[in-house]
Amino acid sequence: MSHISPEFVPVFGDCIRMVREVLLTNDAQPFLISGSGTLGWDQVAANVIEPGENALVLNTGYFGLETYGANVTQLTAPIGGTVPLPTLTAALQQKKYKLLTFTHVDTSTGVLSPAAQIAQTVRAVSPDTLVVVDAVCSVASEEIRFDEWGLDVVLTASQKGLGTPPGLSVLVASQRAVKAWQRRTVREGSYYASWKKWLPIMKAYEAGQPAYFATPPVNLIYAFHASLLQITARADPSLPSLTQRLAAHRATSQKIKAAARALGLKQVPLQESEAANGMTALYFPEGVKAADLLPRLGKRGVVVAGGLLGSIKDTYFRIGHMGVTAVDEARGDVDKIIKALEDSLEEIKKEKGGK
C-alpha cells in the first residue's frame, strides 16, 4: 500500500483524530512520525525550546534538552517517590522557565506522578511555562485530560498502552506550544524532527490529502488505526469505553499488587497512590536474584523485565499489565501472571532449602 494511496489517506487522518479522543483534547495538534518515543523528546528540544532558555525537569533524566542548548534545572525525587509540590512551587518562584517536563509513569520504577496537580501548580505559579509530559508508559492506561489539565505537550509511542508494534512516535502539542514554536527566533535544531516539515503533512492527511516529507510507516499506521478503533470503541459500540478501559487497568493493577503483597513482595513506589496502573515494579525477596526468578517465569509463559534504574537495577523486576492484558479479562493473563509468580517463588524457596 502506498502512502499516497486513496485508501491510506483517510486511515492516517482518522488516526490523527482518534489520538485527540484518547487524550481528551479538542484542538491540540498530533504528530505521528516514524521513530521511537525518544523522537518526541527531539521534537520538544528542537521546536519548543531555544538555546539558552530554561527548562525545569522533575524526577527523571532530561533526554536531549541539554544537547540542544537548553539550561536545565533538575529536581530529583527519592527513589520510588515524586517531587513534592511545595518543592516545585519554590523552584518556579525562583526564576522563569520556558517549559517544565516530567514523566507521567516512570517505566524504570513504576512511579506515577500526579500529572493534574503538577499542571495545576505550574498554571498557578508560572502560567507562561509550558507543561511537557513524557507519557510513553501512561497513554491509554492512565487518565490524561489534555485540555482540562492545561497540558502543552504529551509525547508517547505506539508500543505500550496504545497496543501497536513499536516504531511510531506519537506527540500531541497544544496550540500554545505551536505558537511558541512559531515565535522562535532561532531556526529549529533538527531536520527530521522539524515541525516546519511535519505540520503541513499532518494537516494535509487530516484534510484528506496526501503529502510528503518522509515516507510514513504505512503498515504501522494501519496497525495503529486498528488499535485506536478498539481503544475509542469505534470498532464496536459494545467494546469498553475509554473510561471503562482505564477502570479495568486500575482493577488489574490492584489485583496484581495485592497478590504481590500476599507473597511478601515490596513495591518500588513508596506510596500506593504513586504506583502506576499499567505496570508493577517489585523488589526481589531476600536471597532471590533475577537469574533465579525471571527464567522460571519465562518457562511458565510470562516474560517480565529486570530492573532499569542504575543504583537499584539488580534488586527488582517489572511486570507490564496494560492493553488487552488489563481489558480482556477472558484471556486470563492476570491470573496467569499471578500463578506463575506464586509457583516460581515456591520453587525457588524449595530449591534454596526454604530459606
UniProtKB/TrEMBL annotation:
- Pfam families registered for this protein in UniProt: Aminotran_5 (PF00266)
Record's InterPro entries? Answer: Aminotrans_V_dom, Aminotrans_V_PyrdxlP_BS, PyrdxlP-dep_Trfase, PyrdxlP-dep_Trfase_major, PyrdxlP-dep_Trfase_small, SP_NH2Trfase/AEP_transaminase
Q: Where is the Aminotransferase class V domain?
A: 66-307
**A GO MF label:** L-serine-pyruvate transaminase activity
Provide the top EC class: transferase
Q: What is its EC number?
A: 2.6.1.44
What's an example GO BP annotation here?
Answer: glycine biosynthetic process, by transamination of glyoxylate
User: So where does substrate get bound?
Assistant: R318
What residue intervals traverse the membrane? none
Q: What cofactor is needed?
A: pyridoxal 5'-phosphate
Q: Which UniProt keywords apply?
A: Aminotransferase, Pyridoxal phosphate, Transferase
Question: Could you tell me which residues carry N6-(pyridoxal phosphate)lysine?
Answer: K160
Superkingdom of source: Eukaryota
- What family, per the record? Belongs to the class-V pyridoxal-phosphate-dependent aminotransferase family.
What PANTHER family does the annotation carry?
A: ALANINE--GLYOXYLATE AMINOTRANSFERASE 1, AMINOTRANSFERASE CLASS V
What's the protein here called? alanine--glyoxylate transaminase
| Source species | Gymnopilus dilepis
